[in-house]
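Agenda item 2: nicotinamide-adenine-dinucleotide complex prediction
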Amino acid sequence: MSIKVAINGFGTIGKRVADAVDAQDDMEIVGVTKTGPSFGCDLAVKKGFPLYCTFDEPERIARFAEQGYECHGGLSDLLAIADVVVDCAPGKMGAENLSKYQNAGVKFMFQGGEKHALTGLSYTSSANHAENLNAQGTRVVSCNTTGLSRTLVPLYEHCGSLKVECTMIRRAADPGDSKKGPINAIKPVLKVPSHHGPDVMTVKPEIEINSLAVAVPTTIMHLHSIIADLPEGHGLTTDSILAMWRQTPRVIIMHGEHNRITTTAEVMEMARDIGRKWGDLHEIFVWEDGVELIGNRLYYFQAIHQESDVIPENVDCIRALMGTEPDWRASVAKTDAAISAYYNC
Ligand code: NAD
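Presented output:
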């Protein structure tokens, strides 16, 4: 059976999820929505993804044809042929869209711009795939929370407890975004602690974590500065933690000095060399020479490609909701192999 996937909101995240789904042999894109005709429709047409309107009003649907695009109908028409809808609308539109999904009786997934309370369930592949099996709906957590989860969950599973303080140094805007800032300032998030760290507890409540956040004038990557307190008797060393992360899916460890990869600019240049579309980096990047365990306290930095680390998680999450792959590691391996083959990289 091929899982029929609808994408509601074909923007930064939506177009990437659509490609990643298209790469898999157990699921297919049955349609993507745009709010109206725009350059983004061309990509859907080029990929052969049926185009739908985000809304059902006939006059809005008609606008697509006026600009030369074939529109197959409104959101209701798309939901009627889908098993699961991946909501990739801008954050905080979830409540409005949720009722549409519930009325259509379709499974649904939101993104990290929505609060956990919307669905009462959240998702990352390594933390709680099993908890999401066969659920009606969930939320794939944000790029930052996904990144924290990737490196902290294996540490927690080894240690049995973990206390974490971290600072998110956040990109001000995505490269394709002209509305956000700052462009010449450093902007602390004055809501303390920030929501990013505590959001990890929606997928792994056992990890005690708090965070601060700062927005800086860059469009490429978030950087996390992390301090984790391990319990007595953890039995780990800096080298064994690095070895653990090397075995962890979707984590890349590289020596900054030896590889001359000391800033997020070089990390993204390396990502472009990998050859995925849009220069994406699905993996979390950890600088080997920036990891140090001193006593029970672990220090490290990691970089997050905000537009893409959640993309393979969305694919795994579809399998969780549909109950087609109970083993998260098997899903991750399948997802990543298919994406690599799709882009020949
Ligand atoms: P985006 O603005 O790039 O794309 C959103 C798309 O949804 C646009 O095409 C927009 O026209 C469309 N849209 C507008 N109103 C809609 C509605 N009512 N219903 C459906 N679609 C609608 O936004 P994005 O960056 O792709 O973010 C989508 C979600 O993913 C948000 O929850 C965001 O917080 C989350 N997210 C974003 C990033 C990132 O770095 N961009 C990373 C992780 C998670």
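Discussion summary: Residues 143-159 form the longest helix (17 residues).
Owner for follow-up: CH.
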